[in-house]
Design brief:
It contains three helices and nine strands; from the N terminus they run βββααββββββα. It is of the alpha+beta class. Strands 1, 2, 3, 4, 5, 6, 7, 8 and 9 form a nine-stranded antiparallel β-sheet that branches.
């Protein structure tokens, strides 16, 4: 399985925006979870996680995005970070298909109070690249 990235049209909600991406990663959920829910994994493709308390309510500081809290945490399923000034960043993982656990479908949502795009497509291209090396 090779990786892929699909981007949905950006939604406008009030003064903010919502971005959705669907990624197909060529690694099992456990590997994809590490990439989106650990300081080491995030550092490989997103940005350095200078503070990371892996639990609901835990503190998180993502160097290029800011500081906030972990607002959803369901191991190997959902990691959500709410970052001051950047909004809610949510990763939802599931096996690529019921009979194939070698790949992961990642549904990503970013709800931002403004209209800033921190370059998600380029970052996800890096994630797909890193995932293929695992």
């Amino acid at each position: 399985m090779s990786g892929s990235i699909e981007e949905s049209p950006t939604e406008t909600r009030g003064d903010g925006t919502v971005r959705h991406f669907l990624l197909r990663l060529p690694q099992p959920v456990a590997g994809a979870w590490r990439a989106v829910a650990s300081p080491e994994g995030l550092g490989e493709w997103l940005t350095a996680a200078e503070v990371f308390e892996p639990r609901l309510g835990g503190a998180v500081t993502l160097r290029e995005l800011g500081s906030g809290r972990i607002t959803a945490w369901d191991v190997e399923r959902v990691a959500e970070y709410t970052v001051e000034g950047r909004g809610r960043i949510r990763f939802h993982l599931e096996p690529a298909s019921p009979d194939d656990a070698s790949g992961t479908t990642l549904r990503f949502t970013h709800e931002d109070e403004g209209d800033r795009d921190p370059g998600w497509r380029a970052r996800f291209e890096r994630l797909v690249e890193v995932s293929g090396q695992s």
